[in-house]
Amino acid sequence: LGGLFNRGGGGGGRGGRGGPQQQQTRAQEGADLEADLTLDFDDAVNGLETTITLTSEATCHTCSGSGSNPGSKPETCKVCKGKGVQDEDQGLFSFSRPCTSCSGRGSIITDPCTTCRGIGVEVRPRDVKVRIPAGVKTGQKIRLKGRGGPGRLGGPPGDLFVRVNVADHPLFARSGADLTIDVPITFAEAALGANVKVPTLDG
């Protein structure tokens, strides 16, 4: 398994309640991730289900992403009353901005998780199962929805894109969906024609 790259973090929230401004400050979609997987030629032709191991951000296993130690829970922010935003009146106009007390969460963690220190995510190894379709080619990406970086503040997780690299075969090559092989023949066989035996992937 090769490198792992962050392809960009989440933006506007899908989760959260209230108006659009509250959703943007209270939920963030997880980042999309990429991983490299090298396959044997035979496995790429036939397809398989395998497991890859990633070291990346994942939902904290201690607090399940809440940010609070087990047995405790966040308290509703007293400044914004749980809305996550503060309203400002400026003459004829009214504006909303993320609450400065809770940073838009709507709640305050008073007893932070000792594993993730209150952020709800941790960096750790994790195993991900991936089904590789038959006929996959080098450079092709397999999308695993929801298996990327964890969301923040209740947002959904990102996706994982597995980039495939197919190893060379000592005998066979590929031309589109076809297998090709070079078979040596004599001059007489070329001139007169002949029946020759050729190997296949099955033996």
Distance between the termini: 28 Å
Cα-atom Rg, whole angstroms?
27 Å
Name the average pLDDT: 83
Proportion in β-strands: 25-35%
Portion in helices = under 10%
Strand order of the largest sheet: 1-2-10-9
The biggest beta sheet, please?
Answer: 4 strands, mixed
- SS-based class: mainly beta
Query: What is the tally of helical segments?
Result: 3
What's the SSE pattern? EHEHEEEEEEEEEEH
| Residue runs with pLDDT of under 50 for 5 or more positions | 1-25
Apparent shape: elongated
> What is the total tally of β strands?
12
Task: Please describe the topology of this protein.
Layout: E1 4-6, H1 20-26, E2 33-39, H2 41-46, E3 48-59, E4 75-76, E5 85-90, E6 93-98, E7 107-108, E8 121-132, E9 141-144, E10 160-166, E11 172-175, E12 178-181, H3 187-192
Parallel strand pairs: 2-10
Antiparallel strand pairs: 1-2, 3-8, 4-7, 5-6, 9-10, 11-12
Q: Can you characterise this structure?
A:
The chain is mostly beta strands. It is built from three helices and twelve strands; from the N terminus they run βαβαββββββββββα. The strands form five sheets. The chain has a four-stranded mixed β-sheet. It has a two-stranded antiparallel ribbon with strand order 3-8. Strand 5 and strand 6 form a beta hairpin. The longest helix is centred in the N-terminal third of the chain and has 7 residues, at 20-26. The two termini are 28 Å apart. The model is unreliable at 1-25 (pLDDT under 50).
